[in-house]
Design a protein that fits this description.
This protein is an alpha/beta fold. The protein has 12 helices and 8 strands. It has a 6-stranded parallel β-sheet, with helices on both faces. The chain has a two-stranded antiparallel sheet with strand order 4-5. The longest helix has 17 residues, at 16-32. Mean pLDDT is 76; it is low at 1-13, 36-50 and 284-312.
């Protein structure tokens, strides 16, 4: 099993594993979107700079974080619920997974031990299963748990880029297969996501590089932009999390969507645009997961939080 450290913040801009993860995500995204391999088109140095966004500007694109930016809650959490329903793992593992998700949101930081535990859990669940099997199940899970959780406001922003003739990519730490399904259902160009290793179409339980998170997202966007011949100064990026500041800082048009406290502060200091599609009550509770309000799992998770507090 791969070493611990999944989804933990980096103290430096990127690591070799971040670069590997980013390049793997870019390659997988272009392959899924049907883009031909080869050199990027040469930039037109004589073209004058224009205001953003510009209809027909094919050197501009948009990059959207997924969790709590495009969709309420975490994609991997909803995917886990669907796998549990199909008896991929036991109730005790579901409770642990729900607790990990809730801890992450309540704490407001990414605790290394919790995030590493999530990583190990997810990889152990899919190990030995065929990629095609998980893709088929992912289509069903999208309809069951995700379709009704898309933020209409963010969806409209993505559509505006599409209407302008620009490509729109999801960029997420969720598995690239899951992210690709969501992108296709939303009519987007494709998705950059965490690439799990597979041999002969079967998951090995290892990752290629590391999860697409933090600096790795920025590396993926950089690699895709080079391959697509994009001018990052003309591109836009959207996210709710301060962990995506490296990605947001790459582009000329960064947006903070449903931002957490740190990103809101950072965005205001740099005069980035902000959009908040949550209700006033939800917006005031930055860090509480939308997924934590869902069905019986929500009750069990809330009880676990209350019990944890009483014990302390």
């Amino acid at each position: 099993m791969a070493a611990r450290g999944w989804l933990t913040p980096r103290r430096r801009s990127a690591t070799a594993r971040s670069v590997l993860a980013g390049e793997a995500a870019a390659e997988a995204a272009r392959k899924a979107a049907g883009e031909p391999a080869g050199e990027a088109p040469a930039a037109d140095a004589s073209a004058p700079e224009r205001e953003f966004p510009v209809a027909g500007d094919t050197r501009a694109a948009a990059f959207f974080d997924l969790d709590n930016t495009v969709m309420q809650g975490a994609a991997i959490f909803h995917f886990g619920r669907g796998l549990y329903k199909r008896k991929f793992f036991q109730r005790s593992e579901l409770a642990r997974f729900a607790w990990q998700q809730t801890w992450f949101r309540l704490a407001g930081v990414e605790d290394p031990e919790h995030m590493a535990d999530v990583r190990e859990s997810a990889l152990s669940i899919v190990k030995g299963h065929r990629v095609s099997e998980l893709m088929s199940i992912g289509e069903e899970i999208y309809d069951e748990y995700m379709a009704d959780r898309i933020w209409p406001g963010t969806r409209a922003l993505a559509q505006a880029h599409l209407d302008a003739g620009q490509k729109v990519w999801l960029v997420t730490a969720a598995p690239v297969e899951t992210a690709t399904i969501i992108a296709r259902r939303l009519g987007l160009t494709g998705a950059l996501g965490t690439v799990a290793e597979s041999v002969d179409g079967v998951y090995t339980g290892r990752l290629v590089g590391e999860p697409l998170h933090g600096p790795a997202k920025a590396e993926a966007v950089r690699a895709l932009a080079a391959a697509e011949g994009l001018d990052l100064a003309r591109c836009a990026a959207y996210s709710d999390s301060h962990n995506d500041i490296p990605m947001l800082s790459l582009v000329g048009h960064p947006y903070a969507i449903n931002p957490d406290t740190k990103l809101r502060k950072h965005a205001r200091e740099r005069d980035w645009r902000l959009r908040d599609y949550r209700t006033g009550r939800k917006a005031a509770k930055v860090g509480i997961p939308a997924a934590a309000g869902v069905g019986a799992i929500a009750g069990g998770t809330a009880a676990a939080v209350a019990l944890h507090r009483r014990r302390r």
